[in-house]
Amino acid sequence: xxxxLSAVPSPCISICxxxxxxxxxIGCWRTRDEIREWSRSDDDRRREIVxxxxxxxxxxxxxxx
Length: 65
Hints:
With 65 residues, the protein is mainly alpha-helical. It contains two helices and no strands.
């Protein structure tokens, strides 16, 4: 029996604008390289990218407090 794996959905929320340092997107928190890499990445790498972006966002929010 084969297991069907669903694709990891893109974290893009259609707010495609880089931050002031031009480091990451203010909508999805991915870097330009991560955004470019997304379409060629397998689900494991996509999960890594999503987690990195979540961490990046959490760190930026904590620093702003």
